[in-house]
């Protein structure tokens, strides 16, 4: 059973710090979670983000090198009717582009494990801190490592479903991205073999409210990512073409990507956790968020 619940001193009596009752409470619960646990959440997401950052930077460096080589082999300023050799070069370049794109998608999916593990670790910390429980960072990291494996398989399935849905007139993919958005907290705190079905049911319990909350969390993450991209562009260090690749530009992009990853990971962890706790409480199977410990 563990020790009795000890609610932090700044939380009113009878108030659950992770289960809001309305939109204003939802927003407050997220901001309070980040205020209360932000440093520790940042620490675990930063540690788990090292491998994806290095892997992404190395992939960028190799990819731009391949694309630069392909660009050099293409005919310059073609005029008139293309020769068979020119067509062969173009087809070869298209094949290379397709291969590079597939490789990048594959690497991104593989590195997704580390991102998910970081989010799981951050959620664990947020729940413990919300109820005044002690949790060492090493314990949070170990928890993330275990849950990350569970989440990664579902992540691959969700990614496949969303990509197929986007190919089918876009809207089906957007719908699947919303209804499966809670697969992360469901996999972290419940598990089982019905993670996607459970996420869909929780979202549809109050679809309008959940849609707004999930889209708002996603919008904040997109805004943070765009801010990072704008920062790189303003400093002239953005890698926009193979000619822009230098050790400095790749390194700067890696650092900004790492910082953005930490920020978005924290927002996702806090936003999805509070959204999940709210809808699960409304589903009448969660009396207090302490049950998530």
TrEMBL record:
Regions annotated as coiled coil: none
Keyword Nucleotide-binding: no
Membrane spanning residue stretches: 41-61, 89-114, 152-173, 179-197, 209-235, 255-276
Key words of the record: Membrane, Transmembrane, Transmembrane helix
Protein name as catalogued: Glycerophosphoryl diester phosphodiesterase family protein
Organism of provenance: Stackebrandtia albiflava
């Amino acid at each position: 059973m563990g020790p009795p619940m000890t609610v932090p001193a700044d939380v009113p009596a009878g108030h659950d710090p992770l289960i809001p009752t309305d939109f204003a409470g939802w927003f407050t619960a997220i901001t309070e979670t980040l205020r209360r646990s932000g440093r520790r959440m940042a620490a675990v997401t930063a540690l788990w983000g090292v491998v994806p950052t290095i892997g992404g930077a190395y992939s960028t460096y190799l990819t731009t090198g391949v694309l630069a080589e392909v660009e050099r082999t293409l005919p310059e300023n073609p005029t008139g009717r293309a020769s068979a050799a020119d067509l062969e070069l173009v087809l070869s370049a298209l094949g290379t582009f397709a291969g590079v794109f597939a490789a990048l998608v594959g690497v991104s999916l593989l590195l997704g494990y580390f991102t998910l593990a970081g989010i799981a670790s951050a959620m664990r910390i947020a729940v413990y801190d919300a109820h005044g429980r002690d949790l060492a960072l090493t314990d949070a990291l170990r928890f993330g490592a275990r849950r990350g494996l569970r989440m990664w398989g579902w992540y691959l399935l969700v990614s496949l479903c969303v990509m197929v849905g986007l190919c089918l007139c876009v809207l089906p993919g957007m719908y699947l991205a919303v209804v499966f958005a809670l697969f992360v907290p469901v996999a972290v705190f419940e598990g089982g073999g019905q993670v996607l079905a459970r996420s869909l049911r929780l979202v549809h319990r109050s679809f309008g409210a959940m849609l707004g909350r999930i889209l708002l969390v996603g919008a904040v993450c997109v805004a943070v990512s765009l801010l990072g991209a704008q920062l790189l562009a303003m400093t002239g260090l953005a890698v926009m073409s193979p000619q822009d690749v230098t050790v400095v530009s790749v390194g700067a992009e890696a650092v900004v990507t790492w910082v953005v990853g930490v920020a978005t990971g924290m927002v996702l962890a806090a936003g999805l956790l509070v959204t999940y706790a709210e809808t699960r409480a409304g589903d009448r199977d969660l009396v207090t968020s302490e049950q998530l410990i």
